[in-house]
Write a structure and sequence with these properties.
By secondary structure, the protein is an alpha/beta fold. It is about 35% helix and about 25% strand. It has nine helices and ten strands. The N and C termini lie far apart (about 40 Å). It binds adenosine-5'-triphosphate and magnesium ion. The site of adenosine-5'-triphosphate (ATP) has 12 residues, from helix 1.
Amino acid sequence: MSVELSKKGQVLSATGLSAGYDGRAIVTGISVEATPGKVVSIVGPNGSGKSTLLKSMVGVVRVLEGSVAVAGQSITNMAPEQVAKLGVGYVPQIDDVFPPLSVKENLEIGGYLLKRNEVHERIEAVLEFFPKLKVMMTRKAGKLSGGERKMLAMGRVLMLSPSVLVLDEPTANLAPIVATQLLEEYIRGFADFGSTVLLVEQRAKAALRISDWTYVLGGGRVVLEGAPQELSQNPIFVESFLGGGAGARAPRP
Ligand SMILES: Nc1ncnc2c1ncn2[C@@H]1O[C@H](COP(=O)(O)OP(=O)(O)OP(=O)(O)O)[C@@H](O)[C@H]1O
Ligand SMILES: [Mg+2]
């Protein structure tokens, strides 16, 4: 990475976490840890609570029990902008950009915690990393292709030089070749640089390829966890997640 877009990582952890909506838990008793220099992934079927877990870790959904910490400091139920200030950059699964606003405006919004004179400099850094966006600065985000939009969503979060990246299905709806590039070059690259990456990914095979550790969610709980080499030899995991042939996407419940 020629420009330092992200920072060296910090540990992000959840301990005994339960969270959900309207006081009703969707995920329960979850303990996960993401560490600097590693890609830690979460896989699981649709509706298993992956997004809810990430949201609760970044302050978007209410934690009902347990705790979340960054670098040992509790961020449990902290407001999302406070979590961002502590270096945690979160790219949601949906609503990841502001469609009616231009690419430039989206990046400017990403830099909302920066001083005015820092914003331009950071935009330049993001554009050096995602040069494709350079020629689209005035285009509305809603008019971007799937891959371009995901780059913008990540670029928006990179405006604040996060030390921890929390990414919810960054490859959803992308062509396989674009998905592979995003995962293997960009996302693995952040970890290799020393940042912390916590990734939800439905393409189990692709997730395992770039992960150091993987948690499997089922029915709102961690049902399995391990290093990719172990999981790819676990008959239950192979049956549920790798057996589906080329796509190897998690099965629908
Ligand atoms: N805002 C909400 N209010 C109430 N229930 C919700 C809300 N958002 C999600 N849920 C429910 O919580 C459960 C888990 O959803 P979640 O989005 O966390 O799953 P997921 O594993 O991310 O699924 P997917 O793979 O489809 O993205 C689902 O049953 C869903 O319907
Ligand atoms: Mg989800």
